[in-house]
Amino acid sequence: QITLKESGPTLVKPTQTLTLTCTLSGFSLSTSGVGVGWIRQPPGKALEWLALIYWNDDKRYSPSLKSRLTITKDTSKNEVVLTMTNMDPVDTVTYYCAHIGFSTTGWYAFDIWGQGTMVTVSS
Amino acid sequence: QSALTQPASVSGSPGQSITISCTGTSSDVGGYNYVSWYQQHPGKAPKLMIYEVSNRPSGVSNRFSGSKSGNTASLTISGLQADDEADYYCSSYTSSSTLVFGGGTKLTVL
Q1: pLDDT by residue (tens digit) across B16-73?
Q2: CB–CB of A60 and B51 under 8 A?
Q3: Residue B1, pLDDT above cutoff 80
């Protein structure tokens, strides 16, 4: 059974760097055709795609946030890490990580999602 | 890249069919068959309902169907049920090798 779980601080100060970890279970990012993405959602608002990393270390970033984002994977720990620099109160949202499996639902659809983690940016 | 355009809300009565549109450009929706649809109930994570325009993942009811014409994709839900009441989001691959979501549509089952 594939599951993903987000973890990280619930509160960060403005200008700080946020580091979020997505712990993978039931699959490995060393397997061909697998990817993990990050998506965020302000309270009561729409989903926003942030970043994506594939098993072959191919990385994609949202153009509007690219300068602030870094996505990495640690296959030995079965984790994907997203860092976002220069946090601002507008970055107070729920962050989700999600699985992509080419063999089941293609290259660009998130078929399994984590439960999400809420991050508040405040001094 | 701009968010894909969806109607803010749609509604229908139980048993009826509704369609939610998702309009983009030739650089995203119109250029690729990589449109996905997600259902999100309040306080829950999104659930994939349609991928690659019209394919249903295993376990998703065949009451949900997807299509595309030009730069607009559509999600149709037939035989509306109370549990279909949720927010729905489309997403698409783009010519920049990135992804973009729509603004979301709130479905109300009357």
Answers
A1: 999 999 999 999 999 999 999 999 999 999 999 999 999 999 999 999 999 999 999 9
A2: no
A3: no
Determine contact, residues A96/A118, Cβ cutoff 8 Å: no
Closest CA to A36 of A71, A8, A68: A71
Question: Which residue among B1, B46, B93 sits closest to A47, beta carbon to beta carbon?
Answer: B46
Calpha distance B55→A106 (Å, rounded): 10
Look at A104 and B57 and tell me if their CB atoms are within 8 Å.
yes
Nearest CA in chain A to B2: A64
Contact A47 B93 (CB under 8 A): no
